Fold this sequence. Notes:
Layout: H1 3-12, E1 16-21, H2 25-36, E2 41-44, E3 60-61, H3 65-69, H4 73-89, E4 94-103, H5 108-123, E5 132-135, H6 136-142, E6 153-162, H7 164-177, E7 181-183, E8 186-193, E9 202-208, E10 214-224, H8 230-235, E11 237-238, E12 250-261, E13 270-273, E14 282-287, E15 290-294, E16 298-299, H9 311-324, E17 336-345, E18 363-366, E19 372-375, H10 382-395, H11 438-442, E20 450-452, E21 455-456, H12 457-466, H13 472-479, H14 482-485, H15 487-503, H16 511-521
Parallel strand pairs: 1-2, 1-10, 2-7, 4-13, 8-11, 10-19
Antiparallel strand pairs: 3-6, 4-6, 5-6, 8-9, 9-10, 12-15, 12-16, 12-17, 13-14, 14-15, 18-19, 20-21
Amino acid sequence: MKRAELLESLSRQPVCDLVVVGGGATGLGVALDAALRGFSVVLLESHDFAGGTSSRSTKLLHGGVRYLAQGNLSLVREALAERGTVLRMAPHLAQPLPFVMPSYQWWQTPFYGIGLKLYDLLAGAAGLGRTEFLDAASTLAALPGVNARHLRGGVKYWDGQFDDARLALALARTAEAAGAVVLNYAKVTGIRRQAESTGPRFEVDVCDHFDGTSRSIAAQCVVNATGVWVDELRAATHGQIPQAPPQRMVSPSQGVHVVVDREFLGGETALLVPKTPDGRVLFAVPWLGKVVLGTTDTPRQDLPREPQAFAEELDFILSEASRALSRPVRREDVRSVWVGLRPLVAPPQHAEGSTKTLSREHTIIADANGLITVTGGKWTTYRAMAEDVLDRCFDEGFLPRKPGGLTERHTMLGAPGPGAATSPICAAPGLHLYGTEADRVVECPGADIQLGMGLTEAMVRFAVRHEYAQTVEDVLARRWRVLFLNATAAAAMAPGVAAILREEGCASTELEEFLGLCRHHSLIFEPN
């Protein structure tokens, strides 16, 4: 069904149980959970699924070593359990990853090692491997690119890694398979709380990004899961109950990641520097053939769709990476930069300053007009967050209570079952990311025509036909992660992708906008 026809159909349908606004990790998790419980669900995303923060993470499924240092054991325990759940649900997109903390002082190995042994203990049966104490030679074998000067040893522990944008896509498609309607490029322009009656509680106004078509959808419950933008939607929600302007829920924090070639690190083990000279954490993580360096934690008051790295953030990452690695990292070595805005929960009386002390845990509130808003949290705990959101909807009386726990046992679309043999097709570069759907991908025209960086014409056509892709950015940033790996390569591939999108009938390829985005990601811009 075409987009305009789908919106028209939604506006004519009877009242749906739940409208979820926001197609990032949290919103998609809520939509899937609600659909599996039997509710009628519509999810609306103003841009692309995971187009904001949810595609710009450090790609880690983790309990949070730094939260362990802060003494937040309950958050760490929950996150470690959820880490194991995601690894079971989507083994084609998420895998265990070894980390090593190098030691340069005699006390560092026992000090960090004891803490990481506690990490193992909190993980319990969900642990991925035991923490090990390494000598200098073993540390160098695991991290060939680490700075060897004065190296005394290290500590090896385990966490998880995943492809955030493709996991979001799997959530969207799994929710749709469960009966939900999920629609990207559908911006919610207003939410109206209706007078108490037997009719719908809410009317949700939505506008199509491409043709400007506007429609209204009736709903019994609306969940605001728009991440750092939750306060904007709360301000745009009107009801019968007068209320003061809602207090700000989010204090945004900017996280910058820099991508360099794999040779800077070597091997398949990630590096963690637990404390840089200014007290921050530095990661060097192997991912899809490159190395991700980061991340920063900088307060930011504005909320741009495409935030830029500040000059001091780039300087911090490059200088600290050069200190941690044997080979200096220069600006010309950078293949791509991405910036994500974290929706940190603001305290009741927020004071400006560092965001490092603000909560990474999520918060759910019900405004006087009935809008349910969730923000905070992190990718690893998205499923638990979704359950908490639905519990709040039940408590407020907006939805009838139905048993939960279904998402803990429900595998993602494309995930191979336990003990299932991997298709020989998955041995081809990149096709393992499609799991059991790899055969469907190669059945699309152009499976043997390469566009670069492992992307084929067939993958582009599959992205349009089955994965909601509408623009060049959708394909090269999130269906295939070229923009996040090598912005120059993404720019070179963009015209070919645009031609295929036109053949597939996409309304707008937005080629020029994407080329500007490539310049942004490749550091060919003046930092703020």
